[in-house]
Amino acid sequence: MGFGGYGLYILISLPALLLGLYAQAKVQGAFNKYSRVRVINGMTGAEVARKVLDTNHLQDVEIEQTKGMLSDHYDPRKKVLRLSQSVYSTPSIAAVGVAAHEAGHAIQHATKYGPLALRSLMVPSVQLGSWLGPIVFMLGILFASDNLAIIGLLLFGATAVFAIITVPVEIDASNRAKAILTSSGIIYQNEFEGVKSVLDAAALTYVAGAVQVISTLLYYALLFFGGRRRN
Ligand SMILES: [Zn+2]
Predict the structure, then answer these.
(1) Cα of 103 to ligand 1 centre, how many Å?
(2) Staple 88 to which of 83, 122, 123, 151, CB 3.0 to 4.6 Å?
C-alpha cells in the first residue's frame, strides 16, 4: 500500500497537532494564573454555579464534586452539574469562570438549545463510529472494497460532525457564562479579562479537537480517492 503512508498522515495531521498543543498550553497557563487570583466577592465555583442555576429557575439541577483536573461537566440525563474539587471549593477567577460555563450548559439544556440537543442525539453513533469507522475503512482499503471504505468514512464522519457541533455548543456556554457573571454582578469589570482568557483558551481546545478529527477524515478521503485513481 504505497499511499504516501505515514509521511502524508504526518503532513496532514501536523497543523492540528500543533494547534492542539498550543491550546493545551494556553488552557494550562490561563488556569494556573487565574486559579491563584481570588474573586473579589469571595464566592466559590459551587456557590456561583448555584446562584446562576437558581437565577435561571434551575433549582432542580444538583451540584456535585468530582475527581480529576478539568473534569467539570454537566450531565443532562441526571441533571447534575459536576465540578472538579478545585473549581468546587475555590473562590478564584478560573473556578468561577468554569462553574458559570458548566451552568451555561444546564441552561442550554433547559432552554432546548438546538446544537446541544443534536450533540446529545449523536453520542451513541459517535461512540461506535469513532473506533469502528477507522477499522471498517482500513478493511475496505485492504480488500479494495469501495462500499466498505465508504461505510467506514461515513461512520467516522459522524465523529467529525460531532466535533464540529461541539465548538458552537462550547462557545455559546462560555458566552452565557460571561454575560451572566457580569450582568449579575458576581464578578467586577476588572475581573472580566481573567474569566475571558480562561474560557477562550478552553474553547480553543475544542476548535483544535475539531480540526484534528477533520484532518484524520481528510487523510482517509485522500487514501480512498488516491487509491481509486490508481486502479
Ligand atoms: Zn463546556
Answers:
(1) 9
(2) 83
Summarised one tens digit per residue, pLDDT across range 19-56 is: 999 999 999 999 999 999 999 999 999 999 999 999 99
Q: How far is the CA of 207 from the centre of ligand 1 (A)?
A: 12
What order do you get walking across the sheet with 73-75 strand by strand? Answer: 62-66, 80-84, 73-75
Residue ranges with CB less than 5 Å from ion ligand 1 = 170, 173
> Where do we find the cell 439541577?
61
Instruction: Report the length, in residues, of the chain.
Output: 231
How many angstroms separate the alpha carbon of residue 120 from the centre of ligand 1?
A: 13
Q: What are the pLDDT digits (tens) for 85-121?
A: 999 999 999 999 999 999 999 999 999 999 999 998 9
Q: What pTM was estimated for this model as a whole?
A: 0.89
Q: 162 in helix, strand or coil?
A: helix
Q: CA-to-CA distance for 38 and 30, rounded, in angstroms?
A: 14
| Contact (CB, 8 A) for 115 and 165 | yes
Q: Which of 47, 62, 64, 102 is catalytic?
A: 102
Q: Is 102 a catalytic residue?
A: yes
